[in-house]
Design brief:
Layout: H1 7-19, H2 23-36, H3 41-53, H4 57-70, H5 75-87, H6 91-104, H7 109-121, H8 125-138, H9 143-155, H10 159-172, H11 177-190
Helix pairs in contact: 1-2, 1-3, 2-3, 3-4, 4-5, 5-6, 6-7, 7-8, 7-9, 8-9, 9-10, 9-11, 10-11
């Protein structure tokens, strides 16, 4: 076994290797940090982040889960755990993760947007709209949240409102390709 006093050194080595885009070596260093100190939440988080970057989502999910089990108030780990749940099509778990973040930081606009997307994916468009509205109340220039609110409004067949949200997204980010596409789709439905 690796001496626990070397856990920080292995974690730091992993960070250095990660900064050089040497992902496989960074993953190995983070694993050694965890071997030295299994309850090292930051090393689990760093390992998960490298696994995410390597598109090894199931492994990343397990490492983020371990990080939050060790440190239940680990906001960044909850955010990223929600994101990996979304990639893995586990929107119910994503909703729970995002709600955990919002219990720690109720004004986290990005997580409110992510929660809205997860709710919308689950067919809970009304709740999704409320989450997007909260996000843009906190950050009125959050073009993605305006666009995503439009998507939820389309699911509710509230097309005029969706049109206005897409237009707002485009006012904020004129090159927002998804908002352009969504606006074109809603305009064609409106006639």
């Amino acid at each position: 076994a690796i001496d626990p006093k070397f856990a920080d050194a292995w974690n730091n080595m992993g960070n250095a290797l990660a900064s050089l885009d040497r992902h496989d070596e960074a993953i190995g260093a983070f694993r050694r940090a965890i071997e030295a100190r299994p309850d090292y939440a930051q090393a689990h988080y760093n390992l998960a982040s490298m696994l995410w970057d390597s598109k090894r989502y199931a492994e990343a999910m397990a490492s983020y889960e371990r990080a939050v089990a060790i440190k239940p108030d680990y906001l960044e780990a909850w955010v990223n755990l929600g994101n990996v749940y979304m990639v893995e099509k586990r929107s119910a778990e994503a909703v729970a993760s995002y709600r955990r973040v919002l219990a720690l930081d109720p004004e986290h606009a990005i997580v409110l947007n992510n929660l809205g997307n997860a709710l919308n994916e689950r067919g809970q468009a009304t709740e999704a709209v409320a989450s997007f509205e909260h996000a843009v109340a906190i950050d009125p220039k959050f073009a993605d949240a305006w666009n995503n609110m439009g998507n939820a409004l389309v699911k509710l067949d509230r097309l005029q409102e969706a049109k206005a949200r897409y237009e707002r997204a485009l006012e904020l980010a004129p090159a927002h390709h998804e908002a352009h596409n969504n606006l074109g789709n809603v305009l064609s439905r409106l006639g």
